[in-house]
């Protein structure tokens, strides 16, 4: 049977397989084929495959599939996987518990199922969760979150060769942004000095350091900084990472005129910190500015705000205008890669 497949060199096969799995794009009912030095990874939806991955039609074998939540429920539920935690976003409590029970009964390797109980809130950007399944008292292999070493909401997430220990109840983290983080990380060059103004547990910091950059990560959330330091150690980049808990506006004077690259992933209010980003920038600096705007003019407000703060001290060149994802009806999450040249 011919199905859409991502074609990739064998040496990049596992990395690509993980990437597709994290995006729930692998078609588990078909075999992965190997031919002529390439892997052919069957996918469920060719239109959702990232543009940098070639998709071809190919005849592949079918295979016996494990029990999935869809098999058990009779319909396809919506959920995200973060390590061994499954995340739901269901308003109906009965349906949420039905899905959670199906997930736990399926062959998905899962420790805990949680449901979002609030929006992201407060300066620390955390949300409330309802634990629907999994008792949350048995320590996983990676666990260290509570006093007895266990936490039902702690997990290890892996993306693009990095691993991140985190607790979804204590820190903000979105697995949906893995492709975007990788896009930015690939621009980093060895010996760069990079500054992440809202670093969280290190999903930008760690891959930057792996590429040989000297990286400073700042976050208000004390727990996030603890996890950032642990993740730098886990990924063998602790020597290249400085993690600071505090308000980036108070930290910035210590790194004035320092950075070759600045990440501003605080899309609802990054514009309020642009003066700090410009303070951090060296003579030639790329700023990755994240924003949420109406689809009719997604980039204009951000570009105008950057120019208002940076000019005339810097020449401002927008190198990339990039839509990261749809955020809400008629609103998009975007990134401007902007070079400031003094």
Protein model, in words:
The protein has 342 residues and is of the alpha/beta class. It has a seven-stranded mixed beta sheet with strand order 13-12-11-14-15-17-16. The protein has nine helices and 17 strands. The chain has helices at residues 13-22, 69-73, 93-105, 178-185, 205-210, 222-234, 248-251, 274-280, 300-310, and strands at 2-9, 33-35, 38-42, 55-59, 80-82, 85-88, 112-116, 129-133, 154-159, 162-167, 193-196, 214-219, 241-245, 259-264, 281-294, 315-328, 331-341.
Q: Keywords, please?
A:
342 residues, alpha/beta, four-stranded antiparallel beta sheet, globular
Distance between the termini: 58 Å
Cα shape: globular
Global structural class: alpha/beta
Topology pattern, helix = H, strand = E: EHEEEHEEHEEEEHEHEHEHEHEHEE
* Poorly predicted sequence stretches spanning 5 or more consecutive residues: 137-150
Mean pLDDT across all amino acids: 90
Percent range for β-strand residues: 25-35%
Strand order of the largest sheet: 13-12-11-14-15-17-16
Radius of gyration, in Å, reads: 21 Å
Total helical segments: 9
Using DSSP, what is the number of strands?
17
The main sheet comes to:
7 strands, mixed
User: Helical residue percent?
Assistant: 10-25%
Question: Can I get a quick summary?
Answer:
The chain has 342 residues and is of the alpha/beta class.
